[in-house]
Known about the structure:
Layout: E1 12-17, H1 22-32, E2 37-42, E3 55-58, H2 63-72, E4 75-81, H3 96-100, H4 102-108, H5 113-125, E5 130-132, H6 134-137, E6 146-147, H7 155-173, E7 179-183, E8 186-190, H8 196-208, E9 220-223, E10 237-238, H9 240-248, E11 253-257, E12 262-263, H10 266-276, E13 279-283
Parallel strand pairs: 1-2, 1-4, 2-3, 4-5, 9-11, 10-12, 11-13
Antiparallel strand pairs: 6-13, 7-8, 7-9
Amino acid sequence: MTLATTAPDRPTLGIIAGGGSVPVVVARAAEATGRPVVVFGLVGEADLDIEAFHHHWLRWGEIGRLFDLLAREQVGEVVICGAVNRPDFSAIRVDLGAVLSLPKILSLMVGGDDTVLKNVVRFLEDRGYRVVGAHQVAPELVGGSGSLGRFKPNNDAEADIARGVEASLALGRLDIGQAVVAISGRVVAVEGIEGTDELLQRVADLRKRGRLKAAHRSGVLVKAAKPQQDLRVDLPTIGPRTVEAAAAAGLAGIAVESGRVMIVDRPATVAAADAARLFLQVRPFPDDGP
């Protein structure tokens, strides 16, 4: 078994990176404190921007190589962040470490996304590594509260937010999704395995087909963490593309849970909301709904 060997007072941070800008934000935040960082980029997932940092590229299935590198780099803490897709198991080329761990690895992939991610954390922790969240290294990813842009929700939007909060928490308890769209006081669409962007595309399609009679620029996208979600490895996210999709769906704004939803590229996200005349609200959500 490979175990972490770094002294606990200043462990090297290992970032297992998927796609998008979050791994880079986390690496910069860690380096700004003088902390040693090494990024492990997943081939086909992580962006080339990670090459600005000390890094290694890994393919799906290179489990043995990952643990060898973690030990060689004296990694003590691990962040798993960035967008990833479940791998195509028929295309994976496993190394010896993966073969030796195959029964365990197969067990990791059973269940919903929340269960799978918890199993991955346990797999790393069993080998001596402490898993921390991206937001614990870079708190600015989840900071702020209230209206982040120029626009604020009106009374109708507040009612939609309240209904959306109630529905998003119920959806999360079932490990189904993290987001809903509420229009005119009722939930018209919920997120499933397809993700938030496609949820918003469905709403846009419903408007085009005349299935939603509400006026353009009404309704709210509400996004929250699942109550049982392990935020260390699965922090809900919005960004500029979310704003663009919400505008295309004819919504009035977006409301997200403070401290538990990450805003990627915050300045660009706020600017996009202002340009689209959408409100962007960050607020605490009650555990049992409004």
